[in-house]
Amino acid sequence: MLMISTGNKAVAAAVKQAAPSVVAAYPITPQTEIIEQIASYVAAGEVETEYIPVESEHSAMAACIGASATGVRTFTATSSHGLLYMHEMLHWAAGARLPIVMANVNRALGPGWNTWAEHTDAFSQRDTGWLQVFVGTVQEAYDATLMAFRIAEDERVLLPVMVNLDGFTLSHIMQSLETVDLGDFIPANRLPYAIDVKNPMGYGPMTGPDDYFRFRWDIERSMRDAREVIRETEEEFARRFGRKYGPAEEYRCEDAEVVVVSMGTLGKEAEVAVDILRKEGIKAGSMRLRWFRPFPDLDLKGREVVVIDRDYSFGFGGVVAASLKAKTGIECYNVIAGLGGQEVTYNDIADFVRDRRIGEEMWFGVSE
Amino acid sequence: MYEIRIHSRGGQGGVTAARLLALAAFRDGKHATACPFYGAERRGAPVVSFVRIDDAPIKIYSQIHNPDMVVVLDASVMETVDVLQGLKEGGKVLVNSEHPQEFPGYTSYHVDLTGIALAQDLAIAGTPIVNTPFLGAAAKLGIVSFESVTQAIREMFADERNVKVAEAAYKELVI
Amino acid sequence: MSTISEIPKEEYITTCTAACAGCSSSLSLRYVLKAAGPDTVLVVPACCTSVIQGMYPNTSFNVPVYNIAFAAAAACASGMSKAFRSAGKKTNVIVYAGDGGTVDIGIQALSGAFERGTDFLYICYDNEAYGNTGMQRSGATPLGAVTTTTPAGKTETKKDLDQIVAAHNPPYMATACSAYPLDLYKKVKKALSIEGPKFIHILAPCPPGWRYNSDKTIEVGKLAVKTGSWVLYEREYGKLTVSGPSRTALKKPHPIEEYIRAQGRFKKATPEIIAELQQSIEKNLARIKKEEEGIC
User: Fold this and answer.
1) CA distance C81 to chain A (A)
2) What residues in C contact A87, CB-CB < 8 Å?
3) 3-state SS, residue A283
4) Which range marks the domain in which residue A278 is found?
5) Which residues of A touch B17 (CB under 8 A)?
6) What does the alpha-carbon distance between residue B160 and residue C4 come to, in Å, rounded to a whole number?
7) B with C: 3 or more CB pairs under 8 Å?
C-alpha cells in the first residue's frame, strides 16, 4: 500500500507487521511517536503484542531480554540518553545471544539538552555486540526494520539489531511509504536454547576465562557470518519487494574521483551535492554507509575521500573517518558537521568537496 | 521543485498544514515531503514547517532557505519574524488576514482563514482550525488539485466541516 | 500442612552448591523451590546466588536460572512473565535477589514491576550487606553493624523495604526467616497461588558476614525472631496477620542483647546504640500490633 508517513510511524508499521510478542519501551523525544503508535495498535487489538510500559530504558532492555530468552519476538525503541541508559543491558542482550530488534532515533547527548540529530549516541554503543544499520529515508526505515527481525533471528546471527534513523530530520519528516505484503519473509522465531522448564539450564552463570573467551569469539564469528546473512536478506527483500539495499548506497560512484562518505539523511543530501558538483565538472560520487556493525568492506581505492561525521570521538577524530582509515588505510578530508542538529545543506556538502584538504579535519562553521 | 515555508504559532496546526499539503501533493501523483522545524518551542511560540513538492524523489532534508512561497497562518508572527527572509524574487506570500497585505517585489494574497473556520465553528480548545481552510487556498493557488485536497483532508480528519472550510477558502481567495 | 515432614521430598538444589557453610540463603531457596515446583524459572541478579548455583558448564539448580545484571532483575522478570503469559504458560517467574540488589540498586526496577502489576514473585533474601563482594554496607544493614565499609559500625538505620513495597499495594507480601522453613514454604505456596506482584522478604543470617560460627545459622535466625528484631507476618490484600513464630515476641520480646551478642558484627555497638535498636523494635512491634488489630 502506498501512503505517506513519518519515519517514526514507518518503523511502527513494520513492527506491527513483524508482530513481536513483547514490546517494552520508555518514551523519549524524538522516539516517542514510535511507541505511541505501537501502543495504539495494541490498544485497538490490531496486533497481538504485550506492551510493557517500563519505568526506564535500562528496564526496557532488561524486560526485552527476559522476554526474548523465552523464545518470543521482542522490540523496543529509544534515543540518545535512553540508549546510553541501556548501555549495560545492550552488552547483556548481545552476550546472551538474543535477537532483539530496536529502533534508535539518533539524537545528541546533553548537556546542554539538545533533541536534534547526531550519531554519537549509536556510535558510543558500537562495541556492545549489536548490529547497527543507519537509514536515509522513511521507506528505508520501514524496510530496514522488517529486515532487522529476519537478520537478528537467523540462527547464524542470533544477535540484536539496532535500526538507526536521524532524530526529527527523518523521524518527523513525512515522505512516501510503500508497505509490503510480508508473507513469510520473516520466518518464525526459533531461538535455540530458549528457556524450557522441562530442560532446565543455567543462563549466564559464572564463567571461567577459557569458556568466556570462547563465547566472545562466537559473537565475533556470528558478526562475520552476519555479513552474508545481511546480503542474503537484502537480496531476498529486493527479489520479493523490488527495493535494493546493500552495505552502502552508492550514487554516481562508478567513475568518481572524489567520494563523499556519510551516514543517515546527510547521505541523501550529499547526492544532491554530487549532482551540483558534476555540473561543474567535478567527478563526485556519494557513498552512504548503511551498516556500521558489522563494518562493511568498501571499495574506495584510487579516489579522494571526504568523510562527513555527524559524531565525534573526543581526543581522536570522527568515528566514521577513523573506522574507514583503520579498515582501508585511506586518508580522507574529515568534516565534522551536523552535531546537535546543525543545519547542513547540499550546498555546504558541495563546498566540503570543493575545499577538501585530504589528511585534515574540519569542524564545519567553527574551525577553518 | 516547489518549496513552501509555513509560519504559524505552536499549537495552531502549522505542522499538520504542512503534512496535509504534502499528502495532497502526493495524491496528485507528485513527490512531496513535509518537515517541521522542531525547536524547544511551546504552545504560542512562532514556528515554521516546510513542504517540498517535486516530480522527482526528494533527497533534501535541510531547511528551506529560499522558498518559492511563504504562508503565514498567524499574521501576528510578522511582528517578530521576518517571514520574507530568503523568499525568491517574485515569490508568493499568502497571509491569513481579512485585509490585503502589501509586500513590494512579491505577489501577495490574503484570505481570512480564521473567519472561515469560525463561521463553521471549527476550533480545538478555542483555537480556530486554520490548516484545513489553508488547503483550499493552496488549491486555488494551483499548488495542488482541489480533489486531492478533499481526499487528503478526509484521510486525516473525520469531521466533514474540514472539507467545507477548504471549499470556502477556495472560493474566497482572490487571485 | 503443619509439620515439616509434609514438605515434598523433591529437591531442586543439589547438595553440591558453591555456598558457604551454614549459608541460610541457599537453605531458604531450597524451600522456595520445593514450594514452587518444577514449572518455575528463577531470575537472579548479581548476588550470592550468582555464585551458589555453580560455574559454567555446571549448575546445582534443577530449574532454569536466568542471570541478569544487578539493577535489572524485576524488569527482566516483567518481560519474562509477559512472554510466558502471552504463550499461554503459567510458569512461575521468581526473582531471587539479595538485599543490595533490592533495596539499593534494584529498587527502581522493583517499584516499576510492582506498579505495573507484573505477575511474578519477588523474593529478597536479606543478609543485611553486600555479601558477595565481602560484606560492604547496604541500605539494609542495621544500625551499629560493622561491615567493611562501616568499620566503626553503621551510623544509619536499616531501610524499611517492606513499607516501600507495601506502598505499591501488592496483593500479597510477607516476611520470612530461614530459621522457619515451614513458615517460608507455606508463604511461597500462598504467594504463587495469587495473580499479580507478590513479595517475600527473607531474613537470611550470614555466618561470615555476621561473624558467628556456621553451625549457629538457625539459632541466630530464631533469636532475630524471638527478640522481635525480625517480625514474621503476611499481608494479603492489605490485611496483616502476624505469623505463628512471632506471636510470642509480639507479646514479650526477648531482650535485643541475646541477638546482638550471638554475632561479631555488633561488637562495636555502644549501649546507646543497643538502646536505640531496642526502642526501634518496640516501636515496630507496636505498629504491627496496631495494624493487625485494624487500628491504623
Assistant:
1) 7
2) none
3) coil
4) 248-363
5) none
6) 74
7) no
State in words which class domain B2-172 has: alpha beta
Chain A hits for C57, Cβ within 8 Å: 211
A130 and A26, same domain (yes or no): yes
Cβ pair C108:A59 closer than 8 A: yes
| Contact in structure between B65 and B23 (CB atoms under 8 Å) | no
Chain A CB contacts of C54 below 8 Å? 202, 205-206
Q: What angle do CA A290, A293, A297 make, to 5 degrees?
A: 70
Q: Look at chain A and count its residues.
A: 368
Instruction: Spell out the domain ranges in chain B.
Output: 2-172
- For residue A283, what is its C-alpha cell? 567527478
CB atoms within 10 A of CB C15: 7
Question: Which residue(s) pair with A248 in the sheet?
Answer: A289
For an interface test with A, the pick among C42, C47, C61, C80 (most A C-beta atoms closer than 10 Å) comes out as C80
Do A294 and A353 lie in one domain? The reply is yes
Mean pLDDT, consecutive 10-residue stretches, chain A (368 aa), reads 94 98 97 97 97 98 98 98 98 98 98 96 98 98 98 98 97 96 97 97 97 98 98 98 98 98 98 98 98 95 96 97 95 97 97 98 90
pTM of the model: 0.96
Residue B18 has pLDDT above 90, yes or no: yes
C39·A205 Cβ contact <8 A:
no
Residue A368 belongs to some domain of the structure: no
Instruction: Tell me the pairing of strands C120-126 and C92-98.
Output: parallel
How far is the C-alpha of A165 from the C-alpha of A8, rounded, in Å?
9
Chain A: nearest CA to C132, how far in angstroms? 13
Distance CA C103, CA A236 (A): 50
Q: Scanning every residue of chain B, which has its alpha carbon at the shortest distance from the alpha carbon of A273? A: B60
Boundary residue ending a domain (A241, A265, A283): A241
Which amino acid, B125? Answer: A
C-chain residues within 8 Å CB-CB of A50?
Answer: 82-83, 85-86
Q: Residues of B with CB below 8 A from A265's CB?
A: 61
Burial pattern A242-268, b for ≥16 Cβ within 10 A else e, equals eeebebbbbbbbeebebbbbbbbbbbb
| Cα angle C185, C174, C18; round to 5 | 55
ipTM of the complex model: 0.96
Cell of A71: 523464545
One domain for residues A227 and A354: no
Cβ pair C64:A202 closer than 8 A: yes
Helix then strand count (H, E) for chain C reads 11, 8
Q: What is the least distance, in Å, from the CA of A28 to any CA of chain C?
A: 17
Touching check for B34 and chain A: CB below 8 Å?
Answer: yes
CB-based contact B32 A4, cutoff 8 Å: yes
Rounded to 5 degrees, φ, ψ at A328 are -120, -10
Grid cell for residue C209? 558476614
Q: Number of structural domains, chain A? A: 2
Q: Which domains does chain C have, with CATH numbers?
A: 8-293 (3.40.50.970)
